[in-house]
Design goal:
Length: 302
């Protein structure tokens, strides 16, 4: 799976994430203390270094719309990079800060320690608990300086970052930080042993969207041994979330000449609370039209 070439698909999913039905319980309520504070570099990505979290110096970057209004509350999307990467590369590859994708949202890009997020065996820089606390601290830091709609904070990630989005959704604290969760090619190392495996979100149902390529050669759709340990079959992982969310009325539709399969569940009486897209022949998804013969253009997929 190519990091650069799959990234645009995730960026294209932002409108879907933002339009997911709202959960009965929003992200944890926080005072929007950043409202009224002037931002001197709207439209320019800014960097926050030296954020103390669990005794470690952590960092993230953020981008506010060029026409930022200090008295208006904005939606926030937090984007989680894959392994061997940083938030800056995730931003550049996905183009999520560009107005055509972000719209009028605040974009936030946290950095995992040593280029990855806790969960897989190859990560040694932090524990799951420390990374969850870091994200809690990032959101608190962002809401202290920017005008945020705390009922519309979304998590989106790919590969290792997508797996960590799943970890957050399962965590009693992490699940309260976001309104909805989206993973692309998620490597779900912390959720491999069925629905009752320590996954304890503070609220259910949890709005979740997962997209995966059927030909993914890195995070296999069928599961198996991944780079950082065992990975669940994606169909099993979805069934576990359907169980946790108390979902019913599973529906399936084929799109794009039958190459894309959309599966949706009704959870808590709300249609589409859990959704999945499988793209049969997708391994990489190009940000450049027909860059390579084996690639599919992302706009064709959606």
């Amino acid at each position: 799976m190519g990091f650069l070439t799959l990234a645009l698909l995730l960026a294209s999913l932002l409108p879907l994430v933002s339009c997911l039905p709202q959960a009965p319980m929003y992200a944890t309520s926080r005072a929007a203390s950043g409202c009224g504070k002037t931002q001197f570099l709207p439209g320019v990505t800014q960097y926050r270094f030296g954020l103390k979290s669990s005794g470690k110096d952590r960092s993230y970057s953020y981008h506010v719309p060029s026409d930022y209004d200090k008295n208006r509350k904005y939606q926030v999307v937090v984007g989680f990079h894959g392994s061997s990467s940083v938030g800056l590369f995730f931003e550049l590859d996905t183009k999520m800060s560009e107005t055509r994708y972000s719209g009028d949202k605040i974009m936030v890009y946290p950095n995992g320690i040593e280029g990855s997020w806790a969960g897989p065996s190859y990560h040694n820089g932090s524990t799951v608990g420390e990374d969850v606390k870091f994200i809690e601290d990032v959101i608190a830091d962002v809401t202290a300086k920017l005008c945020v709609d705390d009922g519309k904070i979304y998590a989106a990630g790919m590969s290792n970052g997508g797996g960590f989005v799943g970890t957050l959704a399962c965590d009693r604290i992490g699940s309260t930080l976001f309104t909805a969760f989206a993973a692309h090619s998620g490597a779900f190392y912390t959720d491999v042993n069925g629905p009752d495996n320590g996954c304890t979100p503070a609220r259910v149902p949890v709005p979740i969207l997962e997209i995966h390529g059927g030909a993914d050669k890195t995070v296999h759709y069928e599961g198996g041994q991944g780079d950082g340990g065992p990975e669940p079959p994606i169909t099993d992982w979805l069934d576990w979330w359907a169980h946790r969310n108390g979902c019913s009325n599973k529906s399936e539709e084929n799109l794009v000449d039958g190459d894309v399969h959309h599966i949706s569940w009704t959870c808590g009486g709300v249609s589409g609370f859990l959704q999945h897209y499988k793209v049969d022949d997708m391994d990489i998804c190009s940000t450049r039209p027909r860059a390579y013969k084996s690639e599919r253009d992302c706009y064709e997929v959606l």
